Amino acid sequence: MNTTQLALVALLAGIIIGASVAGVIVAALRARDRARSEVSAAIPEGVSGVLHGMDDAAVVVDSSMRIVAASRPAIPFGLHEDDVLPSDELRDVVRTVRTVETATTETLRLRRGALPAEPRLVVVRATRISPRLTLLVLRDITEQERVEQMRRDFVANTSHELKTPVGAVSLLAEAIESAADDPPQVRIFASRLLAEAARLSSLTARIMSLSRLQSGDVITAQREVSIDEVVANAMDAHALQAESAEITLTRGGERHLFVRGDAQVLSEALGNLISNAIAYSSSGLSVGIGVRAADDIVEIAVTDRGIGISEADQARVFERFYRADPARARRTGGSGLGLAIVKHAIHLHGGEVKLWSRPGRGSTFTVRLPQIEAPDDQAAPRPKRKRKKKRDATAAAKQPSRPNGEAP
Fold it and tell me: Which helix (H) or strand (E) holds 15?
């Protein structure tokens, strides 16, 4: 073997040895990177246990946006373990927290459940817990925001409603002062002043009643309540209104039915339904109050043959200060709080209110309440059975005899 051949052999051997060494080095580096990745992607001890015990939706995602751990409340949002984070908004939050390396909070609207579920208002807080892992905690604040919006609307609507009668009282007082030398005018203005004061008093009382119902403090001492008593009290309270409007109140259906609750609150709620039925009916018509029991539920239906309620308004009639017919409400002095009071009062008793209405045909509001057994001292009287008259042989003997074969 000459010198040239030896050089070639040496070069080939060097290449082979170098490639082997390089391969070993590359394999070692890959193993090191894989070990680091496994270490950095491992969930810190105790995190999974904390997630499973949380009431809020929470997930841990890795750098590939894969969910490696999730709490049970996260499932309705479509956040499942081993799935990729489905929401683009949540992915943006994760990217942001990895960039700034500090905890980030965002308010998003996310859908909880499949269509047609409405999006929920959610506060998302993202925190890095390792170089590759990010913790997302989702707190649903939809109901809190709704309550806060209701509070703001209530304050705004109440201020607006009170402003009208207060302004009228002020103007009428000035008119009375200006017409001090004209007794007939003074009497006219004084009469209108009394009407506005009564309207203001009624509105204030209804606002306070609704506030108490919403706080849940009204139903303190519940007892067995007779539906007959509730219906009778509500009808008596609005008998004068019905007579003035030439409306006939009729009562039908079952009797001796009982529910548990507050008789005064239930009577006022039913009275609001009767008052509305009278106000929205024409003179000469009737308003019916029917009672029946079915499947341990007592149903009290108030039916009128008045102007009815359009389908668009039916979904909103139980809102505070909402009036389906504002012009008629102003004439009748309606505050727009009656049906809201009914809804809250019945809900506090574990019941519900249903509405059926057709424009021009009338409306039926049905109150449904859980039925209870009648108290022992107020059980329904049993109907008397008619006794059959027995005819004995003596009575038969007194009958006149007939020839054989003659029909009686």
Answer: helix 3-41
Alpha carbon 146 to its chain's center: 11
Which tens digits make up the pLDDT trace of 200-239? 776 777 677 666 666 655 555 678 999 999 999 999 989 9
What is the per-residue pLDDT across 23-71, written as a single tens digit (0 to 9) for each?
545 455 455 445 444 434 467 666 777 887 788 899 999 989 999 988 8
In contact, 351 and 368? CB cutoff 8 Å: yes
Domain positions in the chain:
47-140, 143-215, 220-378
Q: How many CA atoms lie within 13 A of 103 on its CB side?
A: 9
Strands (E), 240-348: 248-253, 258-261, 286-294, 297-304
Position 239, amino acid: A
Reduced to 3 states (helix: H, G, I; strand: E, B; else coil), residue 328 is: helix
Q: Order the strands of the 57-61 sheet from edge to edge.
A: 67-70, 57-61, 134-140, 119-128, 104-111
Locus of tokens 């925190």:
127
CA-CA-CA-CA torsion sign (271, 275, 281, 286):
positive
Helix (H, G, I), strand (E, B) or coil at 261: strand
> In angstroms, what CA-CA distances link 91 with 98, 135, 195, 251, 254?
11, 12, 62, 63, 61
CATH of region 220-378: 3.30.565.10
> Can you give the pTM of this predicted structure?
0.51
Amino acid type, 259: V
Q: Which 3 state secondary structure label does DSSP give 123? A: strand
The Cα–Cα gap between 76 and 307 comes to 44
CB 349 within 8 A of CB 224: no
Q: How far apart are CA 292 and CA 253, in angstroms?
A: 6
C-alpha neighbours within 13 Å on the C-beta side of residue 209: 23
Q: Which residues are CB-neighbours of 7 under 8 A, at least 6 positions away?
A: none
Superfamily of domain 47-140: PAS domain (3.30.450.20)
